[in-house]
Amino acid sequence: MPYGMPKSDAERKKTHKALFGTDKLPPRGTGRVRVKPYQRKQKVDPDSDALRKGIVAEYEAVNMYEELAENAKDPKVKEVFLDIAKEEKTHVGEFQEMLLQKDAEQVTELKEGKKEVEEME
Ligand SMILES: [Fe+2]
């Protein structure tokens, strides 16, 4: 069923029973508020959006490979995982550099974040 389509009472009862253990439905309109599909007010640069998603994925990969390295018993396996984790950090740098070329606000905010941390020291 597509998102946002109203469910039949039979479907509502089935879902409600699974969640709350009873067939007795609350009146329509008293449940979860239906939200329109997410819409951004500002036009988003699709490349910047993709680069941010890429950065997140690369950081997750770093964490995963470092965890795999930590759990590896064979030193060679550990070394390979650590080497790949390092490569993922390079990928973060590639994506970040490209993002900074496209997003001037991000450049400013990175500097601002750095300044705030330095002021904590
Ligand atoms: Fe990567």
Rg on CA atoms, Å: 24 Å
**Quick one: overall form?**
extended
Largest sheet: none
Runs in which pLDDT lies below 50 for 5 or more consecutive residues are: none
CATH topology of the domain at 46-102, what is it called? Single alpha-helices involved in coiled-coils or other helix-helix interfaces
Helix content: 55-70%
Q: Which percent band covers the strand fraction?
A: under 5%
Task: Outline the fold blueprint.
Elements: H1 9-20, H2 46-71, H3 75-102, H4 104-120
Helix pairs in contact: 2-3, 3-4
Residues 58, 61, 88, 91 line the site of fe (ii) ion.
Describe it for me?
With 121 residues, this protein is mainly alpha-helical. It has a domain at 46-102: Single alpha-helices involved in coiled-coils or other helix-helix interfaces (Up-down Bundle), CATH 1.20.5. It has 4 helices and no strands. The chain has helices at 9-20, 46-71, 75-102, 104-120. Bound molecules: fe (ii) ion (FE2). Residues 58, 61, 88, 91 line the site of fe (ii) ion (FE2).
